[in-house]
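Homework help thread (please don't just give me the answer)

Our assignment gives two proteins as sequence + structure token strings and asks us to describe the second one. The first is just a warm-up. Here they are:
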Amino acid sequence: MPHTAPPPPRMTVTGATLVIAPPSHPRHQPPPPRREPGPYRRLFALPGTRAFTAGNLLARLPMGMFGISAVMMIAGQRGSYALAGAVTATGLAATALVAPWTARLVDRYGQARIAVPATLIAVLGSLSLILCLRSGAPAWTLFASYAATATTPNIGGMSRARWTHLLRESPSAHHTAMSFEQAADELCFMLGPVVAAALCSAVFPEAGTLTGAVLLLTGMLIFTAQRSTEPPPSRAARDTAPLRGVRPLLALFLPLGVMFGAMEVASIAYLDAHGLGAASGPVLALQAAGSCAAGLLYGTLRPRTLPTCLAALTAAMALPWVAAATDSVLLLGCALLLAGMATAPTMVTAMSRVHAATPPARLNEGMTLAVTAILAGIAAGAATAGWLVDHAGAAPTYALPAAAALTALALGTWWSRPVTRTR
């Protein structure tokens, strides 16, 4: 074996004396400082979080698929967009009535025990809709079948409840988790319609509904199988008293829903008037993409107050109105991107107020009530915007989401004070 000569000694001077310093060796050098993992890496290092998040995303994607799939399927089979719109509107109304009760049962008896059978009922409703269309059944069967999908559990609320259960002692990590959930909402509602439209157009009209049903059931089974992260059921959830602390916030979520519904209808009408038609999807997706990116970034920053977020949202929602007046699709796309970037921080901060106002034992119910208020606002905003488009044109209709954001700012500023948690 060859002999390796030791490194030559180093000379150093101490005072007026020349001494031999001990040889240096790489292994005697201090190791480089370890880089601190980012907030999202720390979040998903918790046991079980990756598994329930995977199921959560699978089950959440169909939330953006079912509506457009039903419209394309019914209109294609029966040749009536009016019927398709009425059926989906009935399903939305049924969801507003049924979802809070489903959420209360989830809080009372546990996620796995309630969510799985509720999902099965919803999946059977989707399959029944397909069979009724294929067999030429009366129109009322379409309404009944789609109404059965209202039992779909609020997967976003259940996921947020798990994070709240796991991160009780870490407010900063909880803020990061809520930001991630909002970004996941935006991602799924951005990708869902695109996937559904592609399946219904390229495969067969029922493909979007079938795929959504499979994803919903598979994701819910994966999600509920992660029992180690599931919040325990609470007897306090049996309390049927109204969530008084949440009521003012529901009034805040209504204009936010109007803003979302009106913005979508105004943008579709504006882009259609400029000859984009079916190619308007990428432009519409810019708002959701901006919100998704801003949500992930907001999770790494210090939370802002609700009035601050609402003020930024109000300013951002005026941008599409200004851009539409210039008659430039490019400027409108940029304005939608910026408007979306103001959306996620506002929703994360508003949802955190719901957390503060809701007893822990009824958290899923409180979150579902907020979502229900948003859905009601979306329906009202879409209907009002449609009337404005017919009577005033697409560009002036952008004033409606701007006005809705201003209303939300007024309400948020008025009610922005410490919330007393009810027990």
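The one we have to describe:
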Amino acid sequence: MRDYLLTLCVTAAVTYLLTGPVRKFAIATGAMPEIRARDVHREPTPRLGGIAMFFGLCAGLLVADHLKNLNSVFELSNEPRALLSGAALIWLIGVLDDKFELDALIKLGAQMISAGVMVAQGLTILWLPIPGVGVVSLTPGQGTLLTVALVVLTINAVNFVDGLDGLAAGMVCIAAAAFFLYAYRLWYGYTIEAAAPATLFTVILMGMCLGFLPHNMHPARIFMGDSGSMLIGLILAASAISITGQVDPDALKMFEGSTREATHAALPVFIPLVLPLTIIAIPMADLILAIVRRTWNGQSPFAADRGHLHHRLLEIGHSHSRAVLIMYFWSALIAFGTLAYSVHSASMWIVLCVVALSAIGLVLLLLPRFTPRAPRWAESVVPPRYRRRKPVPAAREAVPEPVVVEEERVPVPAGLHGSTAIGNRARFTDRRKAGTPS
């Protein structure tokens, strides 16, 4: 665990320290487009935050390669090199899009090519555990198509949800944390070496998001852009492919009997094998709803609009920060709820807790204008908007304000000009102040 923590810290530190210089570079190169109709920010903000995140990825892989306990991932598997190749390609396309606004079909083609590059180097789905059927082996063609589809869906789901400050980075960080716990449990709990690459990928992904979030929280100083959103989406998909299609369920040795009975008995174990789909359930639902909505309205599925889930939260009255926290809440509830159920499937307490937390989440959705107040002892550590209003001081004794009399223009008698007129105007003014008739 210490090696993973070191990798996490190095990745986060490199990403955090490089984001400031990258912001200046984005401003210098003009990578800060004008505000569009669907944007919620009010000032042009630089993009290209994915540059810092990509170098954070490289730093994490480099550190892990020199650690004794993690070096075996690079020696026994080609998946880290496959991930880096696909990530470099999708990151380069994202950088070009952040600067020159590429066409959506070009980006879609680049996503498919990046997935194909990873498949060509061995990062692909080999089999799928299907409840009621058993473990189904896939042909190379089926594995390639399923891998490419999962990569493209995950990348676009993360890209679609990147609409508020800190939203995409925070949700992906939550997903990576839940996925890391599951992969780490398979790797060290069941000594399944095939889970080691996914464990490394998810901890590096967490470091990238944590290092970028301080610069991206509301109000954001820099956006990750497509260079960042497509990058973290690809890494999340690669982690899912690595552990879903590479780990043989028979290696878990948690059941005996026929394949059908074994599959039913191991259903709680199979649930986290589709954990990548549950941890991005919110972005995936947003993606599906957006495609249906735009197609129903006769628009292109790639046409941008303001109908995403985070836009709806803003429309019903939630603030920017609260909308982000609500999305965090639901993502964590689904991801960690699934993870907890996979560990203790027989416990009803987990189901009851999930139901109770879901009810709390629904209440928060229905109270957009409710502002919680922190107790007085915690007011010094919470933002000002959550502090109780201080009592208004007593009104001071009313002091009469000085009366300002507007000075009227005094007509100058005909024939008086120059200094004479000025002198007479001054005398008329003095008489009026003194109260004497002019």
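TA reply:
I won't write it for you, but here's a hint about the kind of observation we're looking for: Strands lie at 127-130, 134-137.
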